[in-house]
Amino acid sequence: MNEAVTKGRALDVSELPTVVFSHRSLMWWGTLGVMAIEGFVFGLVIMAYFYLRSHQETWPLTALPPDLRWGTLNTGVMLVSFVPAHLAKRAAERLNLRGVQVWLVVSVLFGIAFTVIRAFEFSTLNVRWDSNAYGSVVWLLLGLHTTHIITDLLDTIVLTVLFFIGPLDGKRFVDVSENSFYWYFVVAAWLPIYFVIYWGARAP
Fold first, then answer.
1. How confident is the prediction for the chain on average, in pLDDT?
2. Mean pLDDT of 194-202
3. Phi and psi dihedrals of 19, rounded to 5?
4. Distance between CA 19 and CA 194 in Å, rounded?
């Protein structure tokens, strides 16, 4: 009897935490895996860009380089957007409902601003996607990153709504933490893409 009780206590997991963050969460590892795959895709497209460039005497072929204004503005917006995303992550890991609500709303506003400015970016690339190889690879690279922006923005909007109207449980706070973790990747990925698209066309 005592042995059975001892075994029962040994298997008692009632005191284990029901909500964990960072590398202790399966969601964190899943998000990390997605980022690794998507980072590899970005890398392949950037390699394709420089491969095509190395086989041309003039670059960008028959077009002017993209205008710097909107891309540079968006880079600034993207870098600043790291702050509310990070604050939302910290609030989530403290299970701070009010903090999460505030910083999710701010993150949504930044995401909307970035998406609007991105539309101006596409309009000032000075080349169509089907004009030539240069146009195709530039539109592909910018389009891939835009897809990440839109999907993360939609995810952030859904989380924001849930945190205001419910239902809520501890796992939702983990979702916010991992959403911010993914946004770090989106910000970091944009920096080399920005330099490739806007300065790769200006390099001698």
1. 87
2. 90
3. -130, 125
4. 37
* Comparison of pLDDT for 2 and 128, the residue scoring more: 128
User: Is 66 within 8 Å of 125 (Cβ atoms)?
Assistant: yes
The single-letter code of the amino acid at 16 is L
Note whether 186 and 148 are within 8 A (CB): yes
Q: What angle do CA 147, 75, 122 make, to 5 degrees?
A: 50
Alpha helices per DSSP H over the chain: 2-10, 26-54, 68-93, 97-123, 133-165, 170-194
Cβ neighbours for 10, distance < 8 A, ≥ 6 positions apart = none
Spans of all domains in the chain: 64-204
How far apart (Å, rounded) are the C-alpha atoms in residues 32 and 147? 18
18 and 170 Cβ atoms separated by less than 8 Å:
yes
Q: Which CATH superfamily is domain 64-204 in?
A: Cytochrome c oxidase, subunit III, four-helix bundle (1.20.120.80)
**12 compared with 194, residue with greater pLDDT:** 194
Which pTM does this prediction carry?
Answer: 0.82
CA 109 remoteness from chain centre = 15
Cβ proximity of 173 and 159 under 8 Å: no
CA 19 and chain centroid, separation: 23
Radius of gyration for the alpha carbons in the chain, expressed in angstroms and rounded: 22
Cβ neighbour number for residue 168 with a 10 Å cutoff: 13
